[in-house]
Write a structure and sequence with these properties.
The protein is an alpha+beta fold. It has helices spanning 4-17, 23-55, 80-87, 158-163, 201-207, 227-236, 247-291, 293-301, 306-336, 359-386, 389-394, and strands at residues 62-67, 78-79, 102-114, 120-128, 140-144, 153-157, 164-165, 172-175, 178-187, 197-200, 213-214, 216-220, 242-246, 340-344, 350-354. The chain folds into 2 domains: 4-55 and 254-394, no CATH class; 69-240, no CATH class. It starts with a helix and ends with a helix.
Length: 395
């Protein structure tokens, strides 16, 4: 009697060699599983890319201050008197002249037109002061110049230009009743700020009739640890009913909300499609067992055990599933990795980002494929193991 492993290897090899006899049925199983993996990995790559873009934009030594309870800038409001109090807070860095490194900002929604579809979508217009750009990492002008104070001029993130039309250097755009000239294009290291339009704060306040209000204040901290002193100061002054957190914390929360939603859409859809692929796998494997019933019975008659027949059949299903998973992962990588798009962020404005397919996500996709293969091969494998020798030889 052959050793167990030798028996398993022999039956597995026999099963795999017979796959060409059922080429189209096996191919349909592989393609169905590959499609499931493509759908899942596309959603996961989308969520991962969005999270990398948003979360990676935050700094540990910059504080973001919003109205108490606000989850995003669009829902926040900070009065001018509160800004003056924030300027006196402990832990905030100052320049050589002793001025606080803070930036009170206004964040409003304007219309943009998507290049791909020609439809309107919300894009963010941010009013910033002299410190606004300096408080952000990796900001560089790649074209043109910065806007002049008091002028109806804007600078536009290069990510926004890639997805929305009409914001190229030298173009004029209309927000409300005012026409603005695009005088510069800036990069932000691929971060979320590349999805924004920046203009002079007083001009934006005047246009939107918010002369005495802002929506957020950014502040450079002396060190990341000083966020605790700032939080204590904000919580301890009854005039400030505000929340303070590091920019890294703020963007991590923003990223989690949208990426979780994307994943909650992707997994149920992939699982629903997996049931269809599972039906195909079952059909293919039951057909394989039926076509090889004589071979299986003959092997059993000459001393092969039940377990090798079971494992050999299950191995075939897992191999087909692994091929489907690999094909799906490769297709997703080729088509979607690095693909740039825009989606609605937590502030109800578009965020431009690129899909990112990581090795960990590929492992999740292939893992789902193997689960489909395992379940799809389990019951046919049980049938192969339980087929009576006499019945198989008679077939």
């Amino acid at each position: 009697m052959r050793p167990l492993l030798a028996q398993i290897g022999a039956i597995t090899l026999m099963n795999l060699k017979s796959v060409p006899q059922r080429l189209w049925l096996s191919l349909s199983t592989v393609l169905a599983i590959a499609l499931v993996v493509v759908v899942l990995l596309t959603f996961l790559a989308m969520a991962n890319g969005f999270q990398r873009t948003v979360k990676g934009s935050g700094a540990d030594d910059v504080a973001v201050i919003l109205r108490g309870g606000s989850q995003s800038e669009i829902n926040s409001a900070i009065a001018r008197d509160q800004v003056r109090l924030i300027d006196e807070a402990p832990g905030i860095a100052r320049n050589a002249a002793g001025e606080p490194l803070t930036s009170a900002e206004l964040y409003v929604v304007v219309d943009g037109v998507k290049r791909a579809s020609g439809t309107k979508a919300n894009v963010p217009l941010r009013g910033i002061g002299s410190q606004g750009a300096a408080l952000r990492r990796d900001i560089t002008l790649v074209e043109g110049r910065m806007f002049n104070p008091g002028a109806a001029e804007v600078v536009v993130g290069k990510g926004l230009i890639s997805e929305f039309e009409g914001f190229e250097l030298g173009r004029t755009v209309a927000f409300g009743t005012t026409r603005w000239t695009v005088v510069g294009v800036f990069a932000a290291g691929g971060g979320v700020f590349e999805s924004e339009i920046w203009a002079d704060l007083p001009v934006v306040q005047s246009l939107f009739n918010r002369n005495n209000y802002f929506q957020t204040v950014r502040a450079r901290l002396k060190s990341p640890a000083d966020i605790e002193a700032l939080k204590a100061y904000v919580d301890g002054d009854p005039r400030l009913k505000l929340d303070a957190k590091t920019e890294a914390e703020y963007f991590a929360e923003q990223a989690a909300q949208t990426s979780d939603l994307i994943q909650k859409l992707g997994w149920p859809l992939a699982i629903a499609m997996a049931f269809g692929a599972l039906a195909g796998a079952l059909n293919s494997m039951y057909s394989a067992v039926a076509s090889r019933s004589v071979e299986i019975a003959t092997l059993r008659a000459i001393g092969f055990g039940v377990l090798p027949a079971f494992i050999g059949t299950l191995a075939e299903s897992l191999v087909l599933a692994a091929i489907g998973g690999a094909v799906g992962a490769l297709a997703t990588y080729v088509v979607f990795d690095g693909f740039t798009t825009a989606t609605l962020g937590a502030s109800f404005t578009q965020v431009v980002f690129s899909f990112h397919l990581s090795p960990a996500l590929i492992a999740e996709g292939v893992g789902l494929a193997l689960v489909v293969g395992l379940i799809g091969g389990l019951f046919p494998a049980i049938r192969a193991a339980r087929t009576p020798i006499v019945t198989g030889l008679q077939g």
